[in-house]
Amino acid sequence: MLKKVGVIGAGQMGNGIAHVCALAGKDVMLLDVAPDQLDAALGTIERNMGRQVAREIITEADMKAALARIKTGSDYKIFKDADIVIEAATENEDVKRAIFKEICAHVGDDALIATNTSSISVTRLGSSTDRPEKFIGMHFMNPVPLMELVEVIRGLATSEETYKTVVDLAGELGKTVAMAEDFPAFIVNRILLPMINEAVYTLYEGVGTVKSIDKAMKLGANHPMGPLELADFIGLDVCLAVMQVLYEGLADTKYRPCPLLVKYVEAGWLGRKSNRGFYDYSGDEPIPTR
Ligand SMILES: NC(=O)c1ccc[n+]([C@@H]2O[C@H](COP(=O)([O-])OP(=O)(O)OC[C@H]3O[C@@H](n4cnc5c(N)ncnc54)[C@H](O)[C@@H]3O)[C@@H](O)[C@H]2O)c1
What's the mean pLDDT in 13-19? Predict the structure, then answer.
């Protein structure tokens, strides 16, 4: 059983991963290059656990004990005794490679390394380490404390033992695993993002308005959110990046990013995070922008 978990990157995903690991009784070491991100992450974790206490999902004592299990820092020495380090830093291959180099230099020979990448080849990232057989993809969903799925992605060299250990870890975190082989965007994003891209094409070609497209998919396909609303939630830049990975990685024109999606990203209309995407979020109610 893995007891000590390192997490790299204290952003949206990293703080969620630290949250679920600490609640599952793991000792968590959270590292980020930006000290203010670490402070912000601790604040977010405390707020999110507070909500779970209010909803009686966990007790005040669980929260206190979990928070006490999280240590933060910017020096890789904190990973000295880690059983596994989960990397959830910025989606940039050079950044991730530099991080893996540091991890390998600081952890023991038996330590596993997992990446939360949404799109970069797990096989390629693993081959940049000194332990490709102990390297694996653990793709958590956002928001981590609420979403049940973890896609576990085996690189070509990932051993069966590593795979089983990580599936067990996901179970201890209260998550359910779907196994995916290492092809562009894995399973969830391979299916979800082309649907969103198609919704943008539907808008681009004038088949429907933002409102009618979202209404059609909510009421007609029983989706909890419309595809354009969901695109704004994910971030239009992220949606575009995943479509580019699919388009380039699979060399099939069916993955061509919609020119309207490109245009929105060029305009800096990135969805909720920039207050404007397919909806404008500056008022009390989101207003469609087309
Ligand atoms: N946001 C999502 O919905 C989502 C879902 C699944 C997977 N992911 C993946 O998770 C990873 C993180 O995404 P995020 O949304 O949390 O990003 P984010 O921008 O919120 O956080 C990234 C963090 O990494 C830190 N960082 C950057 N370079 C670093 C370095 N060299 N060393 C240590 N820390 C560094 C940043 O300071 C930041 O705090 C990415 O690989 C992304 O593809 C994201």
Answer: 97
- Note whether 266 and 126 are same-domain residues: no
- Residue whose Cα lies nearest atom 8 of ligand 1: it is 118
| C-alpha torsion sign, points 171, 175, 180, 184 | negative
Q: Are residues 161 and 20 in the same domain?
A: yes
Q: Does the pLDDT of residue 119 top 90, yes or no? A: no
pLDDT at 91: 86
CATH number at residue 118: 3.40.50.720
Residue 203 and residue 139 share a domain? no
The CB of 99 under 6 Å from ligand 1? The reply is: yes
pLDDT tier at 149, thresholds 50, 70, 90 = very high
Residues 235 and 95 in one domain: no
What's the number of domains the chain is made of?
A: 2
Which domain-ending residue is among 181, 204, 228? Answer: 181
Q: How far is the CA of 212 from the centre of ligand 1 (A)?
A: 33
Largest CA distance in the chain: 57
pLDDT at 43: 97
Exposed / middle / buried, residue 249 (Cβ in 10 Å: 0-12, 13-18, 19+):
middle
- CB of 74 within 6 A of ligand 1: the answer is no
**240 pLDDT higher than 90:** yes
Last residue of a domain, one of 165, 181, 197: 181
The boundaries of the domain holding residue 172 are 4-181
Strand pairing class (70-73; 4-8):
unpaired
Q: Is the CB of 10 under 6 A from ligand 1?
A: yes
Give the C-alpha distances (Å, rounded to integers) separating 285 from 202, 281, 289: 24, 7, 12
